Amino acid sequence: MADRKPLISGNWKMNHNHFEAIQTIQKLAYALNSEDYDAVDVSVHPPYTDLRSVQTVIQSDDVPVALGAQNVHQAESGAFTGEVSSSMLQKLDVAYVIVGHSERRELFGETDEVVNEKANAVLAAGMTPIVCVGETLDERQGDQAESKVASQIAGSLAGLSAETVGDLVVAYEPIWAIGTGETASSEDAQQMCAHIRSLISDQWGAAAAGSVRIQYGGSVKPSNAPELMGQADIDGALVGGASLDADDFARIVNFRLYQT
Ligand code: 13P
To answer: What's the CA-to-centroid distance between 10 and ligand 1, angstroms?
Structure first.
């Protein structure tokens, strides 16, 4: 897996109030040890209302889990009722921000252009975007998965420097595999992640392609994580449902202990 350190991220979506969030991060801290953190980077992405509570646990208990957000607004400040800016997240020690999740794209109309603006806002505040891409079932069945992902990569990462792209995280999440229990086969997931890496190599060069971390997301569970994570171009996982339970998530973080 080259020398890219895997990043396992828990996207809690709209789950866990701040009391439940505190319990979950405390349980997770209990379940992981320093060897685990040496092998894998870990981030959790609670809802906005939980961020301050989770930050406090991480800081006071010295937990080496990175704090993440699920979304951000692209503007720095202003009349955007209900939105949160990247500098607000950065003040809470947020390190990673998911941008362009398929639920944002599909349910809230985010285009590649907006995703690109959000990625730039995250970078300007000194945080790392996790840029999500992925095709629908129709696109996969119509043999358009690769072209859809290619256009999302070109649009979402437009204008970024090679150095910046090399430090990014890209998450490949086939929409048909999200929350359905349906996982892409390891071969299909590997093939698309390799495709993404070659697109990045073509546009931003071999160094950026060699260092960008590419996560797979879509029904990742303790049972399928070891095989998925064993693929050459899969450098991590973006986990939804299974990240809500600290023990399940810890088992995914510890995929290396279950690899044959
Ligand atoms: P599930 O793991 O619940 O399929 O969700 C995947 C996802 O969308 C993570 O961002």
So the answer is: 9
